[in-house]
Design a protein that fits this description.
With 114 residues, the protein is mainly α. 82% of the residues lie in helices and 0% in strands. It contains 3 helices and no strands. Helix 1 packs antiparallel against helix 3.
C-alpha cells in the first residue's frame, strides 16, 4: 500500500497565503498616517463627547481635564497602534503560509526526483 500524497496541500496553502498577503498588505498600505493635529482634534472631540455624557452639575477642574485628555490620547494612540498591528499580523501570517507552501513544493519536487 502506497503512502498518500498531499500535493494539494501546498497549493491550497500557497493560495490562502497569497490571498492573505495581498489583502492585509493592501490594508496596511492604505492605513492613513495621522498628523499630530488630527490626533489632538480626535482627543478634543472624544473629550467633548465624554463631558456631554457625564452631565455634571459643575464643570471638571483643569487637572481633571488634563488627566482625561491624557487618558484619551493614550487610548486613541493605542487604537491606532492596534489597527496597524492587526494588519501586520495578517500580512505576516500570509507570508509565512507562502514560505511554508513554497518549501513544501521544493520538498515534494525533490522527493519525486529521488
Amino acid at each position: 500500500m502506497s503512502k498518500p500524497r498531499l500535493t494539494a496541500l501546498p497549493a491550497v496553502l500557497f493560495l490562502v497565503g497569497l490571498g492573505l498577503s495581498l489583502h492585509y498588505g493592501h490594508a496596511w498600505w492604505r492605513l492613513p498616517v495621522y498628523s499630530e493635529a488630527e490626533i489632538s482634534q480626535s482627543v478634543e472631540l472624544n473629550l467633548a463627547l465624554d463631558l456631554q455624557r457625564e452631565r455634571r452639575e459643575q464643570p471638571p477642574s483643569d487637572t481633571e481635564l488634563a488627566e482625561q485628555r491624557k487618558r484619551l490620547r493614550s487610548e486613541v494612540l493605542r487604537l491606532l497602534a492596534d489597527e496597524k498591528k492587526r494588519k501586520q499580523s495578517g500580512l505576516t501570517a500570509g507570508l509565512l503560509m507562502l514560505i511554508l507552501s513554497l518549501s513544501n513544493f521544493v520538498w515534494l519536487s525533490r522527493a519525486r526526483s529521488n
